Every structure is written in structure tokens, then in C-alpha cells.
Amino acid sequence: MDQANPSQRPALEPGLEGEARAVVTVEVTAPAVGSGTVSVYATPSMVALMEQAAVACVEKHLAPGEASLGVHLNVSHTAATPPGQTVTAIARLTAIDGRKLAFEIEARDATERIGTARHTRIIVDTTRFAAKLAQKIPPS
Q1: What's the pTM value of the predicted model, to 2 decimals?
Q2: Distance between CA 111 and CA 87 in Å, rounded?
Q3: Sequence spans of domains, the chain
Q4: In the list 3, 24, 54, 127, which could disulfide-bond 91, CB 3.0-4.6 Å?
């Protein structure tokens, strides 16, 4: 498949999956990101990994000039992961409603499931989005 030719890209459809992995380093622990005092994988770090998995699921299926933005996340972080372990997040696209994309995401370490999420992303036209965003910047 030629990734440079959008007409030959696989269709954006429910069931697609994306994956993201990260090694738990000191930089992604709770004390380092300000979300606690115990040196374990931080919830904000897991959330970022989950969003990375959702992006990996859909970005290659979007048209040129489009991107997806996260707009909602309902997350549970249910098990601790110590530094040195690898965490894998797998996002599955579950529904498409116009520009709105719904995902179910699971994060696991080497031992067990550590978190789950339901996530919503919106497809945007990057040129229009940048123009709208620029209106928020005060003149200098």
C-alpha cells in the first residue's frame, strides 16, 4: 500500500487498533510529574500513553490536512507499575459519528492490566483549527 496516496489507505472504521509503548523511567513516575509521592508509573503518564495509542490507531487513516484532537477521557488506573517495566497501551476504535471518534483503551505492564479508558477524539482541519487558535493570541 502506498501511504503517500490517500485513496489507497485503509478506511477509517471501527475495529482498528493502535499501540504505544513506554519504559517506566524516573521521569514518568508520580513524583516527577507532580501527581504523588510514590515512585510508580504516574497516572498522567499513562493517560499520555493511552492518547498516543489512539493517535497511532487513526492518524495514518486521516486525509492530508486533518488531525485528531483528544476531547474527553474517562480513565481508571488500577495497578501500580515500578520503574524499569514496559507499559503497553492498545486503543481500539469503537465508533465513528461524523468527526467524532470513540475508543476503548487498555494499558498493561508485564504482569497485569494497569488501566482502562474510554476516549473521544475529534477530527479537525488543521488549517482552520490553526486560524481559530491564532484568534486567541493577543496582538503584541
Answers
A1: 0.90
A2: 10
A3: 16-134
A4: 54
Phi–psi pair at 92, nearest 5 degrees: -120, 125
| 116 is an active site residue | no
Catalytic-labelled residue, pool 43, 88, 94, 116: 43
Rounded to whole angstroms, the Cα distance separating 70 from 68 reads 7
- Class for the domain spanning 16-134: alpha beta
Question: Is 72 designated active site?
Answer: no
> pLDDT tens for residues 10-32?
689 999 999 999 999 999 999 99
Q: Which residue, among 72, 84, 78, has the nearest Cα to 25 in the 3D structure?
A: 84
pLDDT per residue as tens digits for the range 82-98: 999 999 999 999 999 99
Which residue in 29, 77, 81, 119 is the catalytic one?
77
Catalytic position from the list 51, 61, 81, 120: 51
Is 59 one of the annotated active-site residues of the chain?
A: no
